[in-house]
Amino acid sequence: MTKFFATMALALAAPVAFGAAGKFPTEAAANNIGDQASLQRGAALFMNYCASCHSAEMIRFSRIARDLGLSEEQVMKNLNLVGAKFQDTLQVAMTREDAATWLGAAPPDLTLTARAKHEGADWIYTYLKSFYVDEARPIGWNNPLLPGASMPHVLWEYQGVQRVVTEPRQKDAQGRDLPCRKGEVGNACFVRFEIAQPGLMDPEEYSVAIRDISNFMEYIAEPAVMERRRWGIWVVLFLAFFTFLAWLLKAEYWRDVH
Ligand code: HEC
Which atom of ligand 1 is nearest to the CA of 214? Predict the structure, then answer.
């Protein structure tokens, strides 16, 4: 009976320890979609470092300009690096077939990724933070959030070269693997990341940069949030004004009654 309870406890503890985060827990991005400066920086980083491989075919340059408070000229000069038209969506020059041949997998369209991932922007933030060198792989990099990913660490110059420290998995009395405390890396348990070679940014600056990218990706996944916020302010103002009118009217009616 004790054994039964112990097994039950283990079975229940494993999913609780990691929640819905899967085999490697995500870190909170702490991004804020209302922070326009962050979105602008995120857009610039996205165009420079992601859009060469990834499209975002459900969002237009013109829409980004409007939502991020940028002029057509600013967008065309600073964000549109591929000679697209203002009304165009974010396309990539290379075909999916070429990409698949060169990289081993076609880079997916990123418009809806922040919504497709259960952990949203947190997943993207943690993903961009978790690339580590893996000499066993031809690509030279690996990532515990997407083990065996065919995406190289495109921001390594900024973050630096990161190594992963792991420890062997603990076994229970029956020789079965126990869950890792801090997440899985391959067959081992994650301990920590170490910067083997510093990058152009310190860890704090790098966190800001990837928070901005995650923020921008959350925005493109649901740009209507911006619209709702803009409308929201007017709706509240209208209601406040209307309440005031109603109050004046009431005061007017009751004056004759008193
Ligand atoms: C050299 C091309 C290349 C560049 C540049 C690139 N990626 Fe990728 N990315 C890929 C490939 C290929 C995959 C597919 C990986 C796989 O499934 O093995 C991928 C996958 C992803 C995924 C996972 C998508 C999913 O649905 O699981 C995210 C998120 C992502 N990339 C974000 C980014 C961001 C953000 C940038 C810019 C900082 C970026 N990528 C730059 C090639 C690239």
Answer: 35
Structurally, how many domains does the chain consist of? 1
Instruction: Round to whole Å and give the CA distance between 147 and 149.
Output: 5
Q: What is the C-alpha to C-alpha distance for residues 192 and 1, in angstroms, rounded to an integer?
A: 38
Q: Is residue 258 part of a domain?
A: no
Tell me the chain's radius of gyration from C-alpha atoms. 25
Nearest CA residue ID for atom 12, ligand 1: 107
CATH number for the domain including 73? 1.10.760.10
Task: Verify whether ligand 1 is closer than 6 Å to residue 76 (CB atom).
Answer: no
Task: Count Cα neighbours of 56 within 13 Å in the Cβ-side half-sphere.
Answer: 26
Q: What is the pLDDT of residue 116?
A: 95
Least confident of 5-14, 96-105, 141-150, 191-200: 5-14
Q: What is the pLDDT of residue 4?
A: 56
Q: 22: Cβ below 6 Å to ligand 1?
A: no
129 lines ligand 1 (CB under 6 A): no
Query: 61 C-alpha to center of ligand 1: Å?
Result: 21
Is residue 257 in a domain? no
Report how far ligand 1's centroid is from the alpha carbon of 38 (Å). Answer: 21
91 domain-assigned: yes
* Structural domain boundaries, residue 23: 2-129+202-222
Let me know if residue 236 belongs to a domain.
no
Higher per-residue pLDDT: 123 or 93: 123
Q: What percent of the chain has pLDDT over 90?
A: 77
Q: Pairing state of beta strands 56-60 and 89-90?
A: antiparallel
Best residue among 151, 155, 158, 216 to mutate for probing ligand 1, ranked by most atoms within 8 Å of CB: 151
Amino acid at 149: A
